[in-house]
Structure formats: C-alpha cells, structure tokens
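Researcher: Please translate sequence to structure tokens.
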Amino acid sequence: MYHERHRSAFALIVKFRCYTPHRITKTVMLEPVLRLRYMRSAMHTWTHYVLDVVQSSDDIKTLSDWAHTAGVSYTSLRELCYVIGVPPSDALSFARALRAYIGHVRHGVPLSALLDIRDRRSLVAFTDRTGLTETFCNINRLDIDAFLRAQQVIPQKHDALIHVRQSLAQLD
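Model: Translation complete:
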C-alpha cells in the first residue's frame, strides 16, 4: 500500500502524556493547525509529480512506477491527471520527454540512453510524438520554453505548461 505524500490541510489532533517519575502529570490535546504549505491546487500537485519524474535517476516507464516514485497510489495519480485535463499516459510521456531533454542538454547523453526504450521504431515514435526531434535536441543550451513550445503531448494553451515552466524556473 502506498502512502500519500501530502497530508490533509489540517494537522491531526495529537494526544500525548507528560511523564514524570512515578506519575502522569497531564494529558494535553493539541488543536488542529492549518498548514498552508500543504494546501495546493491539483495543478500544483501534478506539477510536483512531473518534477519527481524529471529528477529521477531512472526512466519511469509506467504509471505504476510513476505513482511509486511520487509516493501516491496509482488511482490517485490517474485521477489527478484526469482532474487537470491531461490523460495519464500523455502526462507520463510529457514528463519522460522533459526528463530526457534536460538530461540530454545538460549532460550530453543521447536520448536513447536516457529513455528505457528497447527498439529504434519505438524510440522514433516516442520522439516524434513528444516533439524531441533530432534538430531540436542538438541545441547546446537548455531552453525549457523552446521544449514546451515544441512538445506535442499537452496542448499549448493548457495551464499545466504554465505551472511546469514556473516550477522549473524556480529550480534553476
């Protein structure tokens, strides 16, 4: 069973006892505390999960692997993707392509080494589908905006791209 990474917006009521030698002095109840840092939109949470794939040392090939990496259940991940309006398989393809693009430009590693794809036909189909063309990937500098414009998995006007762009800008 997977544990949700993000807790609810409210802290739990915690009951503990203060012990002194030979007797209990009191029982204290802590009131629920609103933790604003955990209150996120679905889009923010989805972007965080995409960045988990981008920062992974291994290529995440399946939704189950992605859910495990993100620390959520498979069903929660799928539902989150549907809530924001991106099919889960497209979201995973986008995240894998972004990871491959960043690794290729930063470290000079070929795309075929960054993607766990075993045959040329599947590799070509994936790169065509995601916009990772050979000419685009031969650029020597990292240009996230160019990647987000060139990718063909998520529609260009989708809010998800805005959130990913903002989150990646904060990481650099």
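Researcher: Any highlights?
Model: The CA atoms of residues 46 and 80 lie 7 Å apart.
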